Amino acid sequence: MGMYTILNVAILAVLIGILIWMQKKHFSFTKRVFTGLGAGIILGAILQWAYGAGSDVLIETTDWYSIVGSGYIRFLMMIVIPLVLVSIIHSIINLEKSAELGKMASWIIGILISTTMIAALVGIVTATVFDLNAEQIEAGQAENERGTILESTLEEVEEQTAAQKIVSFIPSNIFLDMTGDRSTSVIAVVIFSVIVGIAVLGVRRKNPEQAEMFTKMINALYAVVMRIVTLILRLTPYGILALMANTVASTDFAGILELGKFVAASYVAIITMFVIHLILVGLFGLNPFMYLRKAIPVLGFAFTSRSSAGTIPLNIQAQQHALGVDQGVANMSASFGATMGQNGCAGIYPAMLAVMIAPTMGIDPLSPGFILQLVLIIGVSSFGIAGVGGGATFAALIVLSSMNMPVALAGLLISIEAFIDMGRTALNVNGSMVTGTITARILNKLNVKTFQDKTAIQEATDI
Asked: Which of 275-289, 350-364, 434-448 shows the lowest mean pLDDT across its residues?
């Protein structure tokens, strides 16, 4: 380790020390998260300015910073599958009526897919207003190589029909899915958990003593898992600090400036969809600003980590304890939202790409037939999108190939992919949180008193 790298690591250690001091002085979780976020941005900008993008010192520094940043994400990913498994079983076996499960799942899936189709329309309108066209982007070596990789990936994707993709959600080896082996592993674990929960309800009618024994075991496991989640979430400000420093230090600002038009259009679409989410919250008689205040810490982490799946523990905690969403609804909406109906990755992004590419093929992107076909394909294909970095590319491959469009052109945006993906991931997570909040409101499973309590966010996150 070089002298400059040691200095950079020491600076990170000092900033972590400040965050620890803030915790001891009982600063709120939100303030600590945003302090970490702001400090990370400033530190990353200074590092890039001092050493230059791609320099050996910067590469070595970010490698050491990743111990904190990537290490935190790994801790979160470690607990995702146990959390989903235990929490959904726990939720079902504590339902008053088994019929509630079907209603809950139907509303959650319906809202997720519906908002994704709305997001597709937002993407279409934004791309049209900004007059985006794939021919306006100059392809270099990196872009061409990326295009070649996407074409080869498409061959693997096209091997499965739509029916086969749906069948792939069903677990054939639940222990393999518990390792997160597939992009749809979370859905597979959800399905398995639901089956176990329903089985316990059946056993309760015939063998109540055995059901009671299993219930006590699950309740104990749930308590332990939630304690692990609490311990891991205490690391959030430090993880965000390191993640943001690495992200800003490694960002290709030249590429962002070169493709500034697409970056601006993407974030206009993302912000527009955020506003639509808040309007939906307001339409159900809830204060959208109160919702936003309580969701911001979760969205901040989603923005920096670029992982919807990794955000599941934070998502569930915030829905249940800060927003007053029923435990079962929170668990299911966070889990489903990480793999289907992602407004940013599966809605806005593929729609904007399709509108950009359409003119190069002599297609009018504003024709009703094109728009209807695109929105429907996006709605159907939004099932099973991986909740990790790269999910948007997978969604784009499916949509563009279904529209008979060249997928290689998606590689033109490689230089700004990470920067845009941050906003898309935050939107994905917000979509799942809004879905959980609205579903709980519809099913009378929302604790309105908790939702309106300004101190609930402090109580939920002061861990």
From this structure: 350-364
